Amino acid sequence: MNSERDGWRDLLRRTADAVEEALAAFDHWQDGGERSDQYAVDQVADAAALDVLDAASVGVLSEESGLRAGSGSETVIVDPVDGSTNASRRIPHYCISLCVVDGLTPVAGLVRHLVTGEEFTAVAGGGAQRNGAPIGPSGQTTGERAVIGVSGRPGADLPVWQVRVLGSAALDLCAVACGRLDAYIDLNSNHGVWDYAAGILICTEAGAWTGEAGGRELFHLSHSERRGPVAASTPELAALLGHARQPGSGSGDGR
User: Fold this and answer.
1) Which of 51, 167, 177, 189 has the maximum number of C-beta atoms within 10 A of its C-beta?
2) 185 contacts: CB under 8 Å, gap ≥ 6
3) pLDDT, tens digit, for every residue of 199-251?
4) Sheet of 183-186: strands edge to edge?
5) Rounded Cα distance, 221 and 66, in Å
6) For the chain, which domains are there?
7) What is the pLDDT of residues 51-75, one digit of tens each?
């Protein structure tokens, strides 16, 4: 089991390395891609990731290139550049997000900041790490001093101290996992699974509460479906934000 986990971690790191190498000399940050919702950086990063993953004969679900079958039951869910609008405007806050699922069960995840190199990892049942060291959430239970990340335009009715809109769901979720943010919510329920799969696994393995805004399953292999990922340092904070009817409830309680 450990050797299998190490193998997945190695594959995800090699994939992230390939993307970093492809972007090292990239200088067309504002150029558009083939689709209206793409940047050239998305396509360059995706090609680099697929070179590694295709060679490993694994299934892939990528935001940029869709779903392709592999030789086994595992699929790697790929967001080559999460926060590509930030990247296009040279805002240094974007990452690669990778999550291995067996069927629809998350197995291993990696999120690497593509500017600082900071890396978050997790394997199912094995905890979560930042640059190899164990991490855990803040433990915040009330909104009085809570700082949360959101996707969308926040209103004045959020019962928390401060709000951050940073532009990368994967990095925001990892910030909850390591206690930098106390919670994260998608106000529009408009994320593809590639945006949050690795971050949700990392949060869950770190001990945070995780769930979906409408109570739906978070993990799927549809390119068109959208979800509202939620993570909070505690079930109590999740309940305060309206995403857990009582402590301990939700579609993915943290361990």
Assistant:
1) 177
2) 148, 149, 150, 151, 213, 228, 230, 241, 243
3) 999 999 999 999 999 999 999 999 999 999 999 999 999 999 988 643 333 43
4) 162-164, 147-151, 183-186, 229-232, 209-212
5) 10
6) 2-134 (3.30.540.10), 147-240 (3.40.190.80)
7) 999 999 999 999 999 999 999 999 9
- Strand spans (E) along 46-115: 59-62, 66-68, 74-82, 95-102, 105-113
Strand partners, 113: 95
Distance CA 247, CA 178 (A): 21
The span from the CA of 31 to the CA of 100, in Å, is 30
Query: Counting Cβ atoms within 10 Å, is residue 99 exposed (0-12), middle (13-18) or buried (19+)?
Result: buried
Count CB-CB contacts under 10 A for residue 223: 14
Global pTM value: 0.93
- Rg from Cα positions in the chain: 17
